[in-house]
Amino acid sequence: MSQLAFDIETIPQIAPLTKLQKTTLDQKLDKELKYLYPTTSVQDLPEEVITEVKRKQMAINPFFGQIVCIGLYDPSTDESTATCSVDEVRLLKDFWRDIESADQFYSFNGMDFDVPYILLRSAHHGIIPPTVRGKSHPFLDRKKYNIKPHFDLYKLISDWGGRTTATLDQVTEFLGIKSPKGGEVVAATVEKFLLEGKYKLIEEYCLRDVMATYEACMLWVDYVNKPKY
User: Fold this and answer.
1) Architecture (CATH level 2) of domain 2-17+64-225
2) Do 72 and 80 form a contact (C-beta atoms < 8 A)?
3) What is the DSSP letter of 90?
4) Which residues are registered as beta bridge partners of 66?
5) pLDDT digits (tens, 9 = 90+) for 123-181
6) Residues 7/181, Cβ–Cβ less than 8 Å
7) Which residues contact 54 (CB under 8 A, 6 or more apart)?
8) Spatial distance between the Cα atoms of 219 and 217, rounded to a whole number of angstroms
9) What secondary structure does DSSP assign to 46-59, as a single string?
10) Cα separation of 162 and 44, whole Å?
11) DSSP codes, 141-168
């Protein structure tokens, strides 16, 4: 068995929305806009603002978005890979194949975002996760307050969501690690670069997050386990 650090990039779904999706999304969008702009009527907001919020809401929700890039890092071999594609089925099938022998996973907010997103999109496509000796794959084990099989640094930093919250960029700066940000691509522009065919830039962006996540996790493990005198 092995360890893997991972990260995903998502965008609004490429396929047209169904009637039910449109209705549900409009309700969610109206609520989000009222929360973000409490002193402004939704009807008075610029169209570009509404569109930006809508696209973001779609991208982060597996019922309205899709995965376009998955990055992995295997510390045992020091090999990192990322694949960007509009073929989500292939991405997910390759992902489950690549993690088949892994039993420890490192992520940043993976328990709340990446893992359920991967599971729901896999279910949407009817992709069945592999089993291990007749049992569910460790990746599916999401018991709260555990660091095995999922070591989610965000959960530990935030005391399992009960206290301080921070972005990966903030955490890396705080821990003295080189920021994974600063390149051409950011989360909000993944869709734009994808449509421009700049897959390589998205893969590089995803891998920077993967590597920074693993480095931060290892630093935290070392800090927690180091003898105190």
Assistant:
1) 2-Layer Sandwich (3.30)
2) yes
3) H
4) 11
5) 999 999 999 988 999 999 999 889 999 999 999 888 887 667 889 999 999 999 988 88
6) no
7) 25, 29
8) 5
9) -HHHHHHHHHHHHH
10) 36
11) ---TT--SSEEEHHHHHTTTTTS----H
In the chain, what are the domain boundaries? 2-17+64-225
164/161 Cα distance (integer angstroms): 8
**What is the pTM (predicted TM-score) of this model?**
0.93
Contacts 24+ apart (CB under 8 A), 158-163: 161/112
Residue type, 199: Y
Containing 187, the helix (H) or strand (E) segment is none
The encoded tokens of residue 3 equal 């360890």
Distance, in Å, from the CA atom of 129 to the CA atom of 123, rounded to the nearest integer, reads: 9
Q: How many residues does the chain have?
A: 229
The stretches in the chain having pLDDT less than 50 are 229
Q: What is the pLDDT of residues 168-179, one digit of tens each?
A: 999 999 999 988
The amino acid at residue 46 is: P
**In angstroms, what CA-CA distances link 215 with 106, 180, 219?**
10, 11, 6
Quickly count: other Cβ atoms within 10 Å of residue 216's Cβ.
24
